[in-house]
């Protein structure tokens, strides 16, 4: 019998003192799970008794009571439309604590708090670039933030100790620290997060009136481009409302591109039409090339598609044989063929090993495309 390795002891947490989390949904519960895994004492609060009890049951922390000591750090993980209210209450309730929020929009809460005249000395806005299509404590994960960018927004008045405490939490949870102003953050997420959400949702909406026969032809391309369309509409209404100016600018720009593309495609025989189409498609290639790949690099990989029987153990066998062949799999995506007992394993490998990988897998009886 093979002996199981003993679990490795967790590294000592950088975060010191009690952490109180306001909002026990996906992000709040995931912060709690990650910190509890590192031995940090965490208390929870939520407007919904059921939500906070569920997060506590999952191990994200314990429900805060009047007897608990004051926290060293408060993490506000509420929806964007009440983030400023929650931050203000936390600053008043715990005047010696550092307060951060993890909402996906940073400028609107900051401006609202400034308008109210709230002392923001102990406030540090932050945003972990992590999430899932579905929310709630039931979807929370301790490793949700691992290797994900964690934006820290500070100003000149932010004490070094307050900044260090927020950074410690981000690092304890596996985040990669990035410093931005609130304005820089909101414009950036407008491009890389909020615009894709709108485009994905609009594309998916075109499927509603489509015939079942057409839907049955859907493949990986449609699934990839509509994945985030399954996100919570109510939450996204709040996010888009709070960050509407950068998103509207981007929508206007992409709308102009779509109009130009449609005009060229409407009459491709007109002078210059084919070039305009090709240039817009090529610009898409260039844009994709800028998206960070594995380990934060922009290195591109070659994809090998392997046909596998849709039966237990086949994928495990394929991965085992890749290891035996000394082929490092950089990424993996599975797709099933509708109506057939077969699947497609799309394996990303370094370009220099792609030819050998295909030859060696074929030699072992695997079918590749």
Automatic annotation (TrEMBL):
Pathway: Amino-acid biosynthesis; L-tyrosine biosynthesis; (4-hydroxyphenyl)pyruvate from prephenate (NAD(+) route): step 1/1. GO terms for molecular function: prephenate dehydrogenase (NAD+) activity. InterPro entries: 6-PGluconate_DH-like_C_sf, ACT-like_dom_sf, ACT_dom, NAD(P)-bd_dom_sf, PDH_C, PDH_N, Preph/Arog_dehydrog, Prephen_DH. Transmembrane segments: none annotated. Keywords: Amino-acid biosynthesis, Aromatic amino acid biosynthesis, NAD, Oxidoreductase, Tyrosine biosynthesis. Its EC number is 1.3.1.12. Gene3D superfamilies: 6-phosphogluconate dehydrogenase C-terminal like domain (1.10.3660.10), NAD(P)-binding Rossmann-like Domain (3.40.50.720). Residues 17-299 form the Prephenate/arogenate dehydrogenase domain. Residues 303-369 form the ACT domain. It catalyses: prephenate + NAD(+) = 3-(4-hydroxyphenyl)pyruvate + CO2 + NADH. The keyword Transit peptide does not apply. Belongs to the prephenate/arogenate dehydrogenase family. PANTHER family: PREPHENATE DEHYDROGENASE, PREPHENATE DEHYDROGENASE [NADP(+)]. This is Prephenate dehydrogenase. It comes from Leucobacter chromiireducens subsp. solipictus.
